[in-house]
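Protocol step 6 of 9: fold each sequence in the batch and record its structure tokens directly after the sequence line. For illustration, a two-sequence batch is reproduced in full.

Sequence one:
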Amino acid sequence: MSGAACTIVSGISGQLAVLHNETFFNESLRLCQMLPGSLRTYCDSIVQTLEPIFTDSELMKTFTPDIFCYAIGICYADKSFCYLFPKPPGNFYLNIQDFKMAAHVAYKQRNSSLVDVIEKLASFQFDICKLPGFSMICDTFNKSYTTLQPSLDFDGDYFSIYEVLNMIIRSVSGLNMIIRSVSGLNMIIRSVSDEVPTQAARGSHWRGRDCTDWNDNIYPGRLPVSEDIHKDSNCNGIFGMNPDTGEAYETELCNCTVSRGVIYLGDSVGAHFHMPEAWFNPRLISPESLHNFTMPFLDELDWPEYGFITGFMNTTEPLLIKNAEWAALVVILSCFQETIYP
């Protein structure tokens, strides 16, 4: 996985360098600046570590993302090694060795060595789930994937109010104060560093947004309780009574509709599994397209919020997946057409 990430990211940096007529090093730093928060610092550290390679004009003449990632030890060239970009002329394995030797020379001129650099790069590949205090968070997200339940669902009705949980995770040793309100509804994680936004896995994107996460009798799609005169029991935003007619708004507005349960067969098929073009096309990549890229990964690169089932999404997020709504509508209309006109 790390090898694929190295190849793709360095390939994008190379395309951005051509697009902006900029050096590979400067363009890599530009790409880092598009990333949110602490990831930007992490990316900067890696690029600065690799600066002797990125600024060596002779090395960059033979540079390809595949050779680069193999040479610095992120990918390993065994009998079944593969490549994503066009191979340079000659033997691919020997090209890797030549690039590695030239990189040794470049670092030696800086009173360093490629071996030290590879060890430093390896130190970047930490497992956040092994850090003190983080295991509880990782266990929560792992549970959501194995049980297909929201990772944060206080009333246990399988619906969550959270699309994004803003967890304040500061010091690595910290998470030392977990405060729950008396009713047990709010969880605040405090310590001393940056705010890290993460998606509540299997949250409101998947089943619709719960409007009251402390009452398991209130959730999206249920039959209204007492015509929802006193409260919105089915989370459609409609409740109360029309003072002019004396009739419940739920009855006036929804009486001609019927609630139906729908089952998706296959998450990724029904939820538009997709890799956004804006992440890979250098003409489209921007801070806006990358500012919250952890959310799609926590949704397993599915986009259920664009489907016709849940219909709930944050409209302030950039539209990374285009025409997904129309694709869902075409499928639904096709199903209706087959039903009406067999």
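Sequence two, same batch, same settings:
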Amino acid sequence: MAGEAEMPQCPQLHVGDQKLSEDPRGHDARCIEVYGLPHQAPYITNTNTEIYAEDRAIPSEMTPEASRKDEPIPQATYTYQLPLPSQGKQGAEAVSSDEVQFDFAPLQHDRLDTQYLERPIGVDHRVVPSPESTPTPKVHRIIGARPVGHSATGSDVSSTDETRVSKSPRTRRRSRTVSNRRDRRPHDDETALTQPSDEDMHFFLMYRAREKQNTFERLVEHLKHENQDLRELNEQTETKLRRTINERDECAEYSELLTQSLVAFKEKYCKLKRWALETNKDCEMLQQNASEFQRTLAGLTKDRDNLLTQLHEVRCSSDSASVHMENLRNGVGAAQAMAENSIATIKQLTAFATAQDDHLMSEKQRCRKLEAHILYLDQEKSKQNVRLQCQQLATNQTLQDISKQLGELQSERVEEDSATKCIMECLYRIGSVIDNNLLVKSDLVPLRKDCTSVSSSLTQLEQSLSEKVQSAIASLRHDLQHDISTQVSRLLSEVQSGNIELAEAKAEVARLEGKTGQAQQIIELLREAKHEAQKHEAELHNTNKGLRNNREAAIVQSEELRTSLRTVTTKWQTACSELEKCKQDKNETHAEVIDLTIRLNEAMAEHNCLRAELIAGESILSELQQQNEEQNIEARISTRLIRTLLTTSS
């Protein structure tokens, strides 16, 4: 894969200088020191890994010129680089001439149990701990034999160009090499102190040559057996390679499916995350709306409480007002009853007054008729007076005539008066005498004489009057008496009748005036009662009007309070319905959020499972690729070994 292709190269492990650098991927880093002959392939085995060398470079210390020297030959140190499979030719080209490059195959326990029962000769298992991690893999040092200073031909060098690896244990060589190595180390120390002789060196070289010959013979026999094993191994590796290729293709397809499913899951996860964020925003908005609704509900409850208190106060005031209204209604009812009674009495009195007014009008008309009759009588009286005045003038004229005649008669009467005076004196004397001397009957005689004289004189006078005057006076007197008597009788009759009627009319007028006075007094009393009743009615009307105004104001206030209560109740009901809706929406959103969280958790679990499967698939794929590359490397190494064996056998 691309992640594995971009991994850095495996670091170099310098064991001679005891320097170690680890693989960044955490693979086993192994430091190997090989001591051996220049013409001999290092015989390397390991219980944990099978090491196959691709190329080997001969160090400069193993040249024939260096081996001919008599100086003590130091121990050669070989540094092997363990590259990654992805390095390819670049890793092989980066190796110097003094370094041998190895590729490590995965551990095969079945072959280790059968083939690698013992460790090879010259392998020093000393563990170098990793500086970073505690359970670091072991670092093996492979120590070979020291090179012996003898001539190395070109055939020897060419025959050992490629590394040969032994997979079968050799116990005898191990014990020999270990003993030689144990014996050689103090000898090397001694040679380092004292220079050996030429005979010792020659003997040592001969010994090394014989040992080399024996090892070559054993190696040839071993390589024959190894060739057969490698052929079988090649067939097995080819089958395994085909199988791994198929598995790699399947893993690639499975990885593609996993990547596609991962992409789809990422899209779904992004959508779910966006939807969850939107639902969180909606939930926050709903929470804000719910808090606002709760605030409004709190305000509405406060307003409702205030309105309830106001309604309670209004009810109390309305109760008191209703009690006051009942009292006023009772008073108004009593006043109305009194007013009705007074109105009934007033109506009766007004009916009586109207009847009296009608009677008075009729009486007034009658009086008017009487006045008109009186005026007529006055006119008649004035006419009669005029006529009487005319008659009186006539009578006055006649009386003047009569007075003239009477004057004449009076002159005559003067004369007669003297006689009458004498007569009167005589009569006076007679009277005085009678008054003084009535008791004397004798004194009556002269008096009787005087009287007789007087009467005789009177008779003489009367007789002396003219008969004409007497006749005229008698006629005038008779006429005047007759006219006066007739006129007086007529006037008296008229006056009496008019006086009677006038008296009756005056009496009737007086009676009517008395009745009208009484009626006027009754009317005045009725007017006063009516005025008082009107005043009382106006007061009652004003009180009724005030009560009506108060009642209307109370009704308006109660209606306003009812409307405000209705509006508040409607608002409260709408707020309750909206709160219920918000609660339902909140519950639905909460249920949706719970479902979404469950689905998100399921998706996260599925994502984690898919991720774990992807990681496991990637690890399996990387292991398969690594195994494939290692098997390819093993196949290449085996083919090269077979070719080298074929070339050597040929």
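Proceed to step 7 once all outputs are recorded. Observation for sequence two: DSSP finds nine helices and five strands in the chain.
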